[in-house]
Amino acid sequence: MSKSLLLNINNLKTYFVLAEGVVQAVDGVHLEIGKEEVLGLVGESGCGKSTVALSILRLIRPPGKIVGGEILFEGEDLLRKSEGEMREIRGGKISMVFQNPTSSMNPVYTVGSQIAEAIKLHQDVQKHQIKEKVVEILHKVGIPDPSKRMEDHPHEYSGGMCQRAMTAMALSCNPKLLIADEPTTNLDVTIQAQILDLMRTLRKDFGASILLIGHNLGVIDEFCDKVAVMYAGKVVESSDITTIFKKPKHPYTQALLESIPRLDVEKERLRIIPGTVPRLIDPPAGCRFHPRCEYAMAVCREQEPTLVEIGRGHTVACFLHTSKV
Amino acid sequence: MTSLSDEKSREEAEEVVEPSKATRLSIVWRKLKASKLAVFGFGIIVFMVMVALLAPVIAPYDLRWTGYSSRPPSMEHLFGTDAMGRDMLTLVMYGAQTSLYVGIAAVALEMLIALTIGMISGYFGGIVDEVLMRFTDLILTLPTLPLLLVTVVLFEERSIHILVFVMGIFGWPFMARVVRSEFLTLRETTFVEAARSMGATPWRIILRHILPNILSTIIVIGTMDIPWFIFWEATLTFLGFGDPSAASWGVLLERGYLPARSAWWIITFPGLALFFTSLGFNLFGDGLRDALDVTTRGR
Questions:
Q1: Which of B3, B191, B212 minimises the CB distance to A104?
Q2: Residue A227 contacts by C-beta under 8 Å, 6 or more apart in sequence?
Q3: Does the complex come out with an ipTM higher than 0.90?
Q4: Could you tell me the pTM of the whole model?
Q5: Hey, are the CB atoms on B212 and A151 less than 8 Å from each other?
């Protein structure tokens, strides 16, 4: 790959130790994000996407624990950093936008003061310049009349405006990596488009890499350079955006793509993936997808497939495409 | 982006409907005024505070003045005189000073302890929470009255400050539990997670992000606890464990209950003062709870 890597996650394992057993929410995930690249992370609810995001920032709280792997950010392992060093990175170099814009802001403070706080936390800005900076950044994300609206409390903002403001806060310290955890899920469709439009512009202006988490493949298709598909705590396939939409290899990716409605293909019914996501306390042996897979073979029940590169930057974890040992 | 300018014009249209931006405090005040009971309660509190502050000026007699004993209410003595011939109205006015001091000071001490323990317990959880909450339970299980009496007796001196101190250090468990449960809920919210993701330290999150969100709850509980402490002081004093030199309403009640059958006014007026003060704080606290809710708007 010509671009150098910004984030390289290797064999990340994040488990939740509960009374009933150990939930292997993230179990050996590999991800790579280059500079100024947008990676989409897709999968069903509960497959561990958000846990990956929180693991990167080391925000996993007990009973959760990162038990293994490495997260290389600019070549340094985040898992070896002290809590103090991590605080410098959070919001400074890596920041995050959450999926509930209206509840991501503290209800008792004005929007402006919250963004100002984020700036003060990571940058040496003179007191009188902070207000200008807040106005400037709110203007950039398209808040109308920013010098006035910054005095509003979050409940006076609409959902879309809250998400704009949150994006403004996340970008206020020019992070290298923006993690967007389903940033458009709770917004209506027209606002979704606006937010994505905004992120696209900001990506150009700020030159940040973005990890976009979502289950809406339409959004991913439109916005990302690369996609990684997660299933039950593991990445099952990853490649650049065109390859995965044109030639998906993993049966789960294929099923996922066939389950979205499309206008250009006439079809009687949408594909339904039978069964449900397995409980991650005792995941199925072998390939975790085999109980729901129509191509399941004997080997799938016994051995776990590993990610194998089958094309340029295209990796798949499936015995259909790798030599059976 | 055309959609953006659309939103802009829409926002501008809204601006016309609501021209001036009210500050937080003025919104709270407006909502408080809408509730008649809260205003009534606030009125009582203000009246009592004024009486307490101005007692040396407005009291009809000097505190040491004595005349005929046990006189019923008359034009010279609106509340009558007590067994020692002192003017009851004067005593009740000075009593407001002591009683309000007791209530407010004890609540301040209660808040200090309850917030510290509740915040640490609720935010950090785990073994810290376990230890602090078992300690809280322990104090809650002990019967209040004997506990207070025994502790007061431990002090050689009988002073009103010791009463405040003893009530404060045993009065916090309930508030601490409320603080803890609020912290348990709020530490899981997205905005706390977002603050963490921006690199805020735990103490910053506790003091700047969570605490302001529970301030209204604490203020309401504190307001309603003021009469509670005034009552306890009266109880302790009534049982003879108070500070006999302080002219609190409790002291007046204690002195008045023996002659109550023949001289009803000696016990009635301090009792009424106590009753109305308690009513005032409770009504005001109730109204304050509604008014402090940021998300509902007053008319």
A1: B191
A2: A39, A40, A41, A42, A220, A238, A239, A240, A241, A244
A3: no
A4: 0.78
A5: no
